[in-house]
Amino acid sequence: MGGHERRLRFGYFLRPEADAPLLDIARRADRYGLDLLGIQDHPYRPRSVDAHSLMAAVLGATKRIRVFPAVSCLPLRPPALLAKAMATLDLVSGGRVDLGLGAGASRDGIEAYGGPSLTAGEARTALEEAVLVIRSLWDGDRGVHFHGEHYRLAGAVPGPVPAHPVGVWLGVTGNRSLELAGRVADGWIASSASVPLGRLVEAQRRIDEAARYTGRDPAEIRRIYILDGSSGLVGGDTARWAGEIAELALGCGVDSFLFDGDPEYLETFALEIVPAVRATVVRERADASV
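Above: the chain sequence. Below: its structure as tokens.
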């Protein structure tokens, strides 16, 4: 299964509620040594600030943590401008940005904000087209022409080039969308609420098979799992919590974990749970190789 031997990464899932101390939480995650900060993007929610604007503020307020939208609501964010926005943030932050991208979680919310009404199949096609558009505007050196069902470019001039190869990580759950992630994505984002343990291995298998079918190594695809604090996956004492997360890494191929819970427990997660998980995984992998 892809992802087994990747260096583990840990982070926090930030819900961008306007009345929360958002920059303080981000600074703490950075100070505690976490690797990733994923920012939820549901722009149609009245209490949510704009995720991309918040990304810029977070990158300016932190020094080392990597920041990404988890995940950008594609129907309300045209991919050409999304490419420009992410490249800009990556440049000004010295290469600390990746792109989480999704087809849109709430059809009603998207339509209320003037976005398109798409079937599941149409949304999946739009997502695949968006990945092609975004990469062409990051990688190309001449005018880009693209004629898809949902997006078109008529000689768009690429640039700027991001400071580093920005990963495109798809937040998808349906079987055909998982296969899409295996074909085209640099990573897959899922939450324990939407893809529980009972489905996680099967979802990974679909990604791996699609990757192999297109000649890709599944190990190239990063696997990011959001640990929803309300799902019952994590809790109790720190040893139990660390053991559960380590098993996800060792048995399910997950290589990146975001804690989605009360920021009051951020220090415990970063300074107690994370080192224990790393130690367990290193020990178990060493024993398995003997």
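The chain has one domain: 9-289.
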